Amino acid sequence: MSNAFAFDTKQFDTAQLESVFFAPARAFTALSIDYTEKLVNAQLEAAKAYSDTTLAQLRSLSEVKDAEGLKSYLEGQQAVAKDLTERLKGDAGKVVALQQDFVQQSQKLTEDSVKQAQQGLKSASESETETASAPKSVKETASKAK
Prior knowledge:
Layout: H1 14-62, H2 67-145
Helix pairs in contact: 1-2
């Protein structure tokens, strides 16, 4: 029984595989991980700010003892709602900025990878042309010698 994964690695140009496939894939993976980390941190900061605000409001509500205290609490709710709205807008802006940065960097990586692949194909075809023309010149030299 033969092993399907037993193959000669010498038949592959690992430098070309590295430059065309593996290096761009690693770069995109690193970019994706960085983006995910920034996004998760932004979400954690937002969640902490929202929960801190909620807990502070619950504490304030628990301290209400009379009608005047309730009136003061309800008036404070307007300010809290305004602050939360501003915070939400800021958080949404952070996420949009992160996404735009990710898209721009992804596009740059893609463009660089395409350019590198084109250069690799060009150099590969040039070396193939040189290899193909070498035996012809050897044949011509051999026929002239006769």
